[in-house]
Design brief:
single chain, alpha+beta, Diaminopimelate Epimerase, Chain A, domain 1, 2 helices, 9 strands, 17% helix, trans-L-3-hydroxyproline dehydratase activity, EC 4.2.1.77
Length: 185
């Protein structure tokens, strides 16, 4: 429930959750959009504006490593956070305005943790999450309450289907003078 002023959108309320990386979460409706029917470009632009606003207005802290204390992206949702058998839809916009083809494993983990923390789901209640861009589905559930540093936390199980999209092979030739890499000064 963090109030953030987003240029072009005004004041919105976001949640910050961690599931392997930090995300800002809010319903697309707060930005005048619908996660299921708005143009992807409009969702990406709005999510990116939220990410930048949060970065400028809120300092993240990670209990073990400050190297992990950065906002990776923003996940816009359909606002359906209370437990339901029906899927809830989101779009994850991360890094350099990239859009995840799935509901996002680390994002589902963080979203489950937030829903549990807010009392919207209980342990072992399985939620289904849908990607607004591809329709792919992941499920997640909080399986155990715990602590992480000074923070209340949950252990979350996520399942979904993933596919290889490519492989790479690197070959190093012994006579290559740059085989171990190089630095620019």
């Amino acid at each position: 429930d963090l109030a953030i002023n987003v240029p072009g959108h005004g004041k919105v309320v976001v949640d910050i959750g961690y599931g392997g990386t930090f995300y800002a979460f809010l319903s697309a409706e707060q930005l005048g959009l619908d996660v299921c029917s708005s143009k992807t470009r409009d969702l990406v632009d709005a999510a990116s504006a939220v990410t930048e606003a949060v970065k400028k207005q809120f300092k993240l802290h990670h209990p073990e490593s400050e190297d992990l204390a950065f906002l990776y992206g923003t996940i816009l949702t359909d606002g359906k956070d209370a437990f339901s058998e029906e899927p809830t839809t989101n779009i994850c916009v991360f890094a350099d305005e990239q859009v995840d083809r799935s509901p996002t494993g680390s994002g589902v983990t963080a979203r489950i943790a937030l829903q549990y923390h807010k009392g919207l789901i209980q342990l072992n209640q399985t939620r289904t999450f849908r990607s607004s861009t591809t329709g792919s589905l992941f499920t997640g559930k909080a399986v155990q309450a715990t602590k992480f540093g000074d923070y209340d936390a949950v252990i979350v199980e996520v399942s979904g289907e993933a596919f290889y999209t490519g492989t790479a092979t690197f070959t190093v030739e012994e006579e290559d003078p740059l085989k171990y890499g190089f630095f620019f000064k």
